[in-house]
Amino acid sequence: MQVDSCDYERARGDGVTAKSRFRSFFRFRLLTLLVIVGLSAGLFVGVRHWLYTRPIDWIPLTTKALDQEVGGSSPIVVFVGADWDVNSILVKEVTFQDSRLKQMFRRRAVIAFYGDWTSNASPEVLSLLNRVKRRSTPTVVVYPPDGLSPQVFDGLVSPEQVMRAIDPSLTFNEDQGR
Prior knowledge:
Blueprint: H1 5-12, H2 18-53, E1 59-60, H3 63-69, E2 76-81, H4 86-93, H5 99-107, E3 111-116, H6 123-131, E4 139-143, E5 151-154, H7 159-166
Parallel strand pairs: 1-3, 2-3
Antiparallel strand pairs: 2-4, 4-5
């Protein structure tokens, strides 16, 4: 005996057709897929934003730690600043908060050291300042990979200067906005 779809639906007694059940199932699957894609995209954008905007992970400056890292495969940036120095605050809050610079730090695995010269009593900071022949804050020292000689900046330094010291092949338009 052959049963057509109308007989089957009448036999079930619920009045729901196979076609409407398929549509409901399809809509549910489509909605589920859209929710998953939307959440994935939101997660991707959120993680990417977090990676490129989170603060730089500063390592407290010690001569031993710096000497171990110099000559390695990662660039090193050393920032010596003081809480009482307006220029140090500007460099820390403007230069090192630049999203392009933070992105470069993440992509190039830059090792970032911070030397606090607030009390002028740190022998570690004094040792570094003597090495680079400086006695002021702020001082930014960029060691390229493979132990090449470092570039030293004192006073106000722009994100572009630090990025060029990390990667000399970079070029910037003079009118390029932030």
